[in-house]
Amino acid sequence: MRKRELLSQIKLSEKQKEKLNEEIKAFYLDERGEEIGIIEQMQILELFEKKLAPVIYNRALDDARRWYTGMMDNLESDYYTLYKDEE
């Protein structure tokens, strides 16, 4: 039996990292009037990957579970609405 791999960190592609680094750079320039270098951008992105991404991921799992549970609660009543009257 295969062991499930633990999700220790969200993995981003290089293209995703580039796009997010551009967003970080633009945010600092627009909101703070500061230009930050690539090293600072990478450090901020790395911090978000390690600390914020797992929190958001877990929240998404909780939301999906809540939705799924709601759908399962409706399953029995939905089933009986499909039932045909026997004459």
Beta strands, count: 0
Report the portion of residues in β strands: under 5%
Please report the number of helical segments: 2
**Structural class estimated from helices and strands:** mainly alpha
Task: Note the gap between the termini.
Answer: 51 Å
Give your account of this protein's structure.
- With 87 residues, the chain is mostly helical.
- Helices cover 74% and strands 0% of the residues.
- It has 2 helices and no strands.
- Helix 1 (14-32) packs across helix 2.
- The longest helix is centred in the C-terminal third of the chain and has 45 residues, at 38-82.
- The termini are far apart.
Index terms:
0% strand; mainly alpha; 2 helices; 87 residues
Summarize the structure.
With 87 residues, the chain is an all-alpha fold. The chain has helices at residues 14-32, 38-82.
Protein topology:
Layout: H1 14-32, H2 38-82
Helix pairs in contact: 1-2
